């Protein structure tokens, strides 16, 4: 079990306790997103929070949805991955309410990023997506590798079928480092 502090039971009504708990979960998500310089996927945020047993999956998805609707978190879906990033309004809100997050929770989050930041960054730095180009009757793949918000590689490749586009995007996720290395060796 994690160092997650129990919500005080005091004399609050059940609805107030639930709201306090949801607010804490929202602050935890905002804190996580504020600790990185890249967007995190919904799965990355979920994996950490569920592993620490802070809450269950459905409650977490409700929290993320409410943060997105309140424009405290931006959400962008690329293929089957939803990327989350804190907005300026989210940072402002976190700055105001950050003291409500227990020190032990902040330490767990900070330790998680110290151990996993490189892996997390690589998971969202490589993007592969495709779209149908009706005027040309083909699919266009868009392959990107980003580092600190700068595109290192940005390639568009037209292909005749959706299956080919999907395969290219899947292989890009697996082989982008090799391809980037090959390109730099050949071009420099």
Give a concise summary.
The protein is built from 6 helices and 6 strands, in the order αβααββααβββα. By secondary structure, it is of the alpha+beta class. It has a 3-stranded antiparallel beta sheet with strand order 1-3-2. A 3-stranded antiparallel beta sheet has the order 4-5-6.
What does this protein look like?
The protein has helices spanning 14-34, 42-51, 57-69, 88-97, 103-125, 162-187; strands at 40-41, 73-78, 81-86, 126-133, 138-147, 150-159. The protein has 188 residues and is α+β, with helices and mostly antiparallel strands. The strands form two sheets. The chain has a three-stranded antiparallel sheet with strand order 1-3-2. A three-stranded antiparallel sheet has the order 4-5-6. The radius of gyration is 20 Å and the shape is elongated. The N and C termini lie far apart (52 Å). The model is unreliable at 1-11 (pLDDT under 50).
Map the helices and strands.
Layout: H1 14-34, E1 40-41, H2 42-51, H3 57-69, E2 73-78, E3 81-86, H4 88-97, H5 103-125, E4 126-133, E5 138-147, E6 150-159, H6 162-187
Antiparallel strand pairs: 1-3, 2-3, 4-5, 5-6
């Amino acid at each position: 079990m994690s160092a997650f502090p129990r919500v005080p039971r005091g004399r609050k009504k059940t609805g107030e306790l639930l709201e306090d708990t949801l607010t804490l979960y929202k602050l935890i998500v905002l804190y996580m997103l504020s600790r990185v310089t890249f967007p995190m996927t919904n799965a990355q945020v979920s994996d950490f929070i569920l592993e620490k047993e802070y809450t269950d999956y459905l409650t977490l998805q409700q929290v993320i949805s409410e943060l997105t609707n309140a424009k405290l978190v931006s959400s962008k879906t690329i293929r089957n991955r939803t990327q989350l990033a804190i907005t300026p309004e989210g940072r402002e809100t976190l700055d105001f309410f950050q003291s409500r997050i227990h020190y032990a929770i902040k330490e767990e989050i900070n330790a998680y990023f110290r151990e996993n930041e490189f892996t997390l960054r690589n998971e969202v730095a490589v993007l592969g997506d495709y779209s149908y180009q009706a005027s040309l009757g083909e699919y266009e793949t868009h392959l990107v590798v980003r580092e600190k918000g700068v595109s290192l590689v940005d390639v568009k490749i037209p292909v005749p079928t959706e299956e080919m586009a999907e395969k290219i995007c899947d292989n890009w996720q697996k082989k982008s480092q090799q391809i980037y290395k090959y390109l730099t060796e050949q071009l420099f």
